[in-house]
């Protein structure tokens, strides 16, 4: 069988054709490429002979390192091909050109990679073309060198590139070897011009092909035996970025420089190439999947260390490439030429999300007046907005923050801690936000201790993720359990830090507890909360280890647990929730009915031994406020709190039904976030104090708030309708952006991560009952809750409201007005559950299941 000058060119060996017309001919022989094959073997074994004309940059008799080996292989094959081409008459004016694609085209030839060659001709006689092709291909076949070849004219090659994305991607990397350079230039310029002009029509297919490849090959960073070529974060992804760059949609190296974790895209690419080079050398054949049994040998050859060190380096490189691809694809989507009426569409609007943070073109970006160099909390506000909206942070925004944002002073301001908690409370959406921060070096600034666990591979095969990703996944699962505990903030922080002691030697629980103390103080937690966070990290394995390894019927087992926890019921419930989140984030099958029932029974028995729960109680009133209450009238004061950008709003007014709902509604309508509130009464007036922070800019004047409250009490403002309209406006803005920028028909409902929970407490006072609500926050939630109480005829005697990140822990002392207490409770509970955020209709699956 001869080479087909008009077909794919992938033909097998057969008898050499004889020329029927004059042309560039030469005698053939079965051993013509034997010297090439011999030289290849000697390069791999470190032999002294490298073949005719080949250059061994490492010298004779010495094993070449991975980069030198690739360079030597490229030199060797180029020398042989140029020599052979000249022998066959493939010269500048011959009408033939030999073009390299694949590894040789990229100058990344690996030991056992196929030789990808394209023989171009200027519409030459088919017989002559066949003879030249046969005399070029057959020596390589005879020498058992794997060959992927084709023979085409320029129009034929362009037609193939136009209809086959894979072929087009290969020809985008074409490189001239020998012959008529003008032919090669016509091919390369033609393929690239065709690629650029038609990228709008081919982009969706390119991305679909890429995602299908990821689904088949998995994620390199978290695979025990990763596919270095086709896996997510692999070499094919670097080629994808190059293709998008050639299409002039990206700059080819988006978002990461040498100072970022992973050392930037170029270093990550080179590291993967080195590992794949050694993989070929160890396997003795072409191989893309890194087998576990080869990892130690490859790690030693690259002077990295053992298989765990190699896995850590691969994770770092692959995650760097993955992040770069995410940025590159988003950038390319925005840069795509618009079609039809879309070209006339007005530019995307900039919708405010937080102070200094806006949405633009489907990404979270900095506002025009943002000053990152003077705003240390901006990093967390940007990340929080990204996690809560599900929109990615712009690469340029992250780069600007990485270059200019100062470190947060210690202890952190309350707003910064709150933004961190909001991000963690967003569940699976926090994973991408933290990954983006980490790849750009910003996460390490917030948590310097993270460096020891970054990309750290697990020592146990049951673990799915690297240690750092496991911590983030645990926090994502824990966000679904926040309403089970009294301290959702400490649950999420404990989940994020529970394994922070790994990678340092010693008992990671003990080491981690010391680090948790250090981190807790930096975050600005109260000393008692620092102690509780430390205890969570120190004892995060206590419940699962005790429940699965000890006899629960032995009273000493329970006593030891209670003693270790100091009889702290809050710590017990936090460890219970963390044990489930930790197991779910470990891997499939780690959490099940057996483990759940054992830990649940241990917790139940510990609670029986511990003291009962303490009832919520009202905060004491300020004597000055009591005096104002006695004077009557409506008073509104707004004064700075003990933290920057935080204020205390005090509302004193004659107690009447609807006052709390309207006061909270006025605050929400003016974009004041309520962090905490203490609600009481004195001298016939309500005394309500709110700790707030403005979402944008400076807070409104106290006089304006008072005027709005008076109007609302007079019935001139329907605050609930206005709050609902404000929510709908924000949602509609998201919907329009999704349709215009991403082609989505609608914005997915942002479900609450954890289901709401209502807890009732009886009191010693007749007619009083305490309700504790644990739920996720929403715009104007306190106003809506107070209105629900009013609708049910429940009078709020006092209340304590706390917002921890995106979670609320609200306690209300209610007078249900006598009558059927059970029926009244059910009515109130139904009413308040109607105003809290929606929860998923099925069981929370966390980020690992989405």
- Helix segment tally: 31
Main sheet record: 8 strands, antiparallel
Number of strands: 15
> Strand-residue fraction?
5-15%
What is the residue-mean pLDDT, rounded to a whole number? 88
Globally, the shape reads elongated
| Oligomer type | single chain
Q: Low-confidence parts lasting 5 or more residues at pLDDT below 50? A: 1-30, 48-60, 843-850
What is the count of structural domains?
6
Class inferred from helices and paired strands: alpha+beta
Using only CA atoms, what is the Rg? Answer: 34 Å
Q: Please bin the fraction of helical residues.
A: 40-55%
InterPro entries: ACT-like_dom_sf, ACT_dom, HD/PDEase_dom, HD_domain, NT_sf, PII_UdlTrfase/GS_AdlTrfase, UTase/UR
Region (Disordered): 1-64
Catalytic activity: [protein-PII]-uridylyl-L-tyrosine + H2O = [protein-PII]-L-tyrosine + UMP + H(+); [protein-PII]-L-tyrosine + UTP = [protein-PII]-uridylyl-L-tyrosine + diphosphate
Region (Uridylyltransferase): 1-352
For this entry, give a set of tags:
48% helix; 6 domains; four-stranded mixed sheet; 850 residues; Beta Polymerase, domain 2; Bifunctional uridylyltransferase/uridylyl-removing enzyme; alpha+beta; NT_sf; disordered N terminus; Four Helix Bundle (Hemerythrin (Met), subunit A); 15 strands
What this model shows, in words?
The chain is an alpha+beta fold and 850 residues long. The protein folds into six domains: 66-199, 2-Layer Sandwich (Beta Polymerase, domain 2); 218-338, Four Helix Bundle (Hemerythrin (Met), subunit A) (Up-down Bundle); 371-409 and 416-446; 460-618; 623-732, ACT domain (Alpha-Beta Plaits); 757-834, ACT domain (Alpha-Beta Plaits), CATH 3.30.70.260. Helices cover 48% and strands 12% of the residues. It has 31 helices and 15 strands. The strands form three sheets. Strands 8-9-11-10-14-15-13-12 form an eight-stranded antiparallel beta sheet. A hairpin with a 2-residue loop joins strand 14 (795-804) and strand 15. Helix 9 (235-246) runs parallel beside helix 12. The longest helix has 29 residues, at 307-335. The model is unreliable at 1-30, 48-60 and 843-850 (pLDDT under 50).
């Amino acid at each position: 069988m001869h080479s087909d000058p008009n077909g794919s060119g992938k033909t097998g060996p057969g008898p050499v054709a004889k020329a029927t017309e004059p042309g560039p001919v030469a005698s053939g022989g079965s051993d013509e490429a034997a010297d090439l094959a011999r030289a290849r073997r000697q390069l791999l074994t470190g032999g002294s002979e490298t073949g005719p004309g080949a250059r061994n940059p490492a010298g004779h008799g010495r094993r070449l390192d991975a980069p030198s080996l690739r360079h030597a292989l490229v030199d060797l094959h180029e020398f042989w091909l140029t020599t052979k081409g000249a022998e066959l008459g493939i010269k500048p004016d011959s009408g033939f050109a030999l073009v390299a694609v694949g590894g040789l085209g990229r100058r990344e030839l690996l030991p056992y990679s196929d030789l990808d060659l394209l023989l171009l001709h200027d519409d030459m006689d088919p017989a002559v073309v066949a003879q030249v092709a046969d005399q070029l291909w057959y020596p390589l076949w005879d020498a058992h060198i794997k060959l992927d070849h084709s023979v085409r004219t320029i129009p034929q090659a362009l037609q193939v590139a136009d209809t086959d994305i894979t072929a087009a991607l290969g020809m985008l990397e074409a490189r001239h070897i020998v012959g008529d350079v003008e032919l090669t230039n016509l091919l390369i310029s033609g393929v690239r011009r065709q690629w650029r002009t038609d990228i709008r029509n081919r982009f969706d297919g390119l991305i679909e092909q890429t995602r299908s490849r990821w689904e088949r090959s998995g994620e390199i960073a978290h695979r025990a035996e990763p596919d270095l070529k086709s896996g997510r974060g692999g070499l094919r992804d670097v080629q994808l970025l190059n293709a998008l760059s050639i299409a002039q949609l990206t700059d080819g190296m988006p978002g990461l420089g040498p100072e970022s974790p992973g050392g930037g895209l170029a270093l990550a690419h080179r590291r993967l190439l080195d590992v794949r080079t050694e993989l070929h050398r160890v396997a003795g054949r072409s191989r893309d999947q890194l087998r576990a049994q080869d990892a130690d040998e490859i790690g030693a050859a690259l002077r990295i260390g053992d298989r765990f060190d190699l896995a850590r380096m691969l994770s770092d490189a692959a995650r760097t490439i993955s992040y770069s691809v995410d940025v590159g694809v988003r950038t390319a989507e925005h840069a795509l030429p618009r079609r039809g009426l879309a070209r006339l569409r007005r530019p995307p609007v900039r919708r405010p999300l937080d102070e200094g943070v806006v949405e633009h073109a489907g990404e979270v970006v900095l506002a025009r007046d943002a000053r990152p160099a003077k705003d240390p909390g901006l990093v967390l506000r940007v990340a929080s907005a990204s996690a809560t909206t599900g929109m990615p942070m712009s690469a340029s925004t992250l780069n600007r923050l990485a270059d200019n944002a100062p470190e947060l002073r210690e202890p952190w301001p309350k707003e910064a801690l709150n933004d961190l908690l909001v991000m963690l409370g967003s569940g699976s959406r926090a994973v991408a936000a933290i990954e983006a921060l980490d790849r750009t070096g910003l996460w390490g600034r917030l948590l310097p201790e993270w460096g020891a666990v970054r990309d750290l591979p697990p020592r146990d095969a049951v673990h799915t993720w690297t240690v750092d990703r496991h911590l983030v996944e645990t926090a994502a699962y824990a966000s679904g359990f926040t309403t089970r505990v009294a301290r959702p903030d400490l649950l999420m922080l404990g989940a994020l830090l529970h394994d922070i002691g790994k990678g340092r030697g010693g008992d990671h629980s003990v080491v981690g507890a010391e680090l948790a103390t250090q981190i807790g103080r930096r975050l600005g937690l109260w000393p008692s909360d620092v102690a509780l966070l430390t205890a969570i990290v120190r004892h995060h394995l206590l419940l699962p280890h005790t429940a699965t390894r000890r006899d629960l019927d032995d009273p000493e087992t329970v006593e030891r647990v209670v003693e270790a926890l100091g009889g702290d019921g809050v710590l017990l419930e936090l460890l219970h929730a963390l044990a489930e989140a930790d197991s779910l984030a470990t891997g499939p099958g780690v959490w099940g009915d057996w483990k759940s029932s054992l830990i649940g029974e241990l917790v139940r028995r510990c609670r029986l031994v511990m003291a009962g729960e303490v009832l919520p109680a009202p905060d004491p009133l300020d004597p000055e406020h009591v005096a104002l209450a006695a004077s009557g009238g409506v008073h509104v004061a707004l004064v700075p709190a003990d933290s920057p950008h935080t204020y205390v709003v005090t509302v004193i007014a004659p107690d009447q039904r609807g006052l709390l709902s309207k006061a909270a509604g006025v605050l929400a309508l003016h974009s004041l976030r309520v962090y905490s509130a203490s609600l009481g009464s004195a001298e016939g007036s309500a005394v309500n104090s709110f700790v707030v922070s403005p979402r944008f800019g400076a807070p409104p004047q106290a006089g304006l708030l008072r005027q709005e409250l008076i109007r609302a009490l007079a019935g001139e403002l329907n605050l609930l309708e206005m709050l609902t309209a404000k929510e709908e406006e924000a949602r509609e803005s998201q919907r329009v952006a999704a349709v215009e920028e991403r082609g989505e028909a609608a914005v997915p409902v942002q479900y609450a991560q954890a289901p709401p929970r209502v807890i009732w407490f009886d009191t010693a006072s007749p007619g009083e009952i305490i309700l504790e609500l644990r739920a996720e926050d929403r715009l104007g939630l306190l106003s809506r809750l107070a209105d629900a109480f009013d609708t049910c005829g429940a009078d709020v005697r006092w209340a304590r409201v706390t917002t921890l990140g995106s979670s609320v822990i609200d306690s209300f002392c209610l007078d249900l007005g006598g009558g059927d207490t059970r029926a009244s409770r059910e009515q109130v509970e139904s009413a308040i559950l109607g105003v809290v955020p929606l929860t998923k209709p099925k069981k929370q699956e966390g980020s690992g299941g989405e």
